[in-house]
Amino acid sequence: MAMIKVDISGARYSVGVEPKPKNDMEGRQRTDRLTGTPLYVTQLVKLDDDGAEIVAVTTPGQPDVGQGAEVRPVNLIAIPWQQGQRSGVAFKADSIEHAPVPTGKGGAA
To answer: Rounded to two decimals, what is the model's pTM?
Structure first.
C-alpha cells in the first residue's frame, strides 16, 4: 500500500508516553532496513479542530523528548496496512523535534 504524507500544519502534538524501543515478536529491538539505526515508538497526542487523537509514531533513533513536551514530527507519513482480517494505519517520521516556541507580538496585555 502507498505511503501518505501527513500535513501537520493545523495540529499541535505533545508527547503522551516517552519513546520506547520498537521490538519484534522475540523482544529484539527492530532496526531501520536501510541504515541499521534502532527504531523507537513515541506516543503522541494530536490536537486539532476535530479534537484529540493518540498517534504512535516510529522513528529511527531515540527522540530526546519527555512526557508532556510540545513536539513536531518531521516528515510524518501514514502507512495503511492489512494483514488477514486486521487492518490499520502505521505512522513513521524522520524524527520528533521540540516544537518552536511561539513568539509574542506587541507589549504585555
So the answer is: 0.87
